[in-house]
Design a protein that fits this description.
Elements lengths: L8 E8 L6 H11 L18 H6 L6 E7 L2 E7 L7 H8 L4 E7 L6 H12 L3 E7 L8 H14 L11 E5 L4 E3 L10 H10 L12 E10 L3 E10 L7 E5 L5 E5 L2 E6 L2 E5 L7 E5 L9 E3 L17 E7 L14 H14 L4 E4 L5 E6 L2 H13 L4 E3 L3 E2 H4 L2
Parallel strand pairs: 1-3, 1-4, 4-5, 5-6
Antiparallel strand pairs: 2-3, 6-7, 8-9, 8-15, 9-14, 10-11, 10-15, 12-13, 12-14, 16-18, 16-19, 16-20, 17-18
Length: about 400
Amino acid sequence: MSISTTAQAIRNIAIIAHVDHGKTTLVDAMLRQSGTFRSNEAVAERVMDSNDLEKERGITILAKNTAIQYHNSKINIVDTPGHADFGGEVERALKMVDGILLLVDASEGPLPQTRYVLSKALEAKLTPIVVINKIDRPDARVQEVLNEVYDLFIDLDADESVLEFPVIYTNGKAGTATMDIDVPGTDLQPLFELIFKTIPAATGTPDGDLQVLVTNLDYSDYLGRLAICRVFNGTLKAGQEISLSKIDGHIETVKITKLFTFHGLKREDTTETEVGDIIAVAGIPGITIGESFCALENPKPLPLIHIDEPTIAIVFSVNNGPFAGREGKLVTSRNIKERLERELLTNVSIRVEDTGTPDNFKVLGRGELQLSVLIEMMRREGFELMVSRPNHRHQARQ
């Protein structure tokens, strides 16, 4: 396969899978075989599950991205949560990509979490590749599972053209892939080649009108808030003055102080961007998800990211019960308020509403799992609080 040496070929993909179907293990193998890690570099297993809760529960909570160097080309991989409670993460993750790897266990077949994210990907008209994983399982039923995948696509009203998706068979743990189930694979080369053959390249041009969409947020102790962005058109340069189209519609002028591109799980300094790449921008105070960078003259903002409305509400309160002060160190309403405000910086699917009393905060989210994860993270960080019984959609609006 020939890849142009004049410009780096870039493909942006999201991986969709149910819990324990081997998504993170496969990404580990892709990172290792692509040469993204040095041969002497120590790499933890399941590198995409960077959050302690993710490792313990075996689920993906936060949408994260990594970049694989393959010859003179780059594959940006976005790891998507599988549960509907993390729909806010899913929707913005899919804005970053042009195609998906639908990863399905060769024994269990497609399960409910697969269905939710796949429906979102089909709505976004993303190009699919179906990966039947764990083909080494003694109870693998490859053809039946593939038929179930076709049924799932049909059930989700996929176009006929989408039903012609390519299928590849993998053993993520062994790091092998094959296009023919009867011919054992030796490495992941067939998967890399299939990604470049199937997933469309970015359609923008380097000298076109600048259009860069903020799809995620991160935070650095040294640099402050980082905007994770997809470059749809034009070229963004360090030191450049550009327009920032805000959520409320107004446009302000900002200066780009620092730019990063991704290599493996690390951010690397860069002076200018490439069309289609996923980048990080530092030094823009108050920037948030859904905003876009545009040209100073004749700015053309990108459409805002639609996030599903919250379906559940829980009241977080200062612990004033008989066991108050026994477990946590962060116990005041100010502590809780500051932590919830920090959560809002990077979590667009959560809202916090004033209850009229200083010790209570109404937190709205997509589901009980999402809010239970937030509560557990706060507990581990040393917060002590009380929470109310969940109120569902019709009550959450009151």
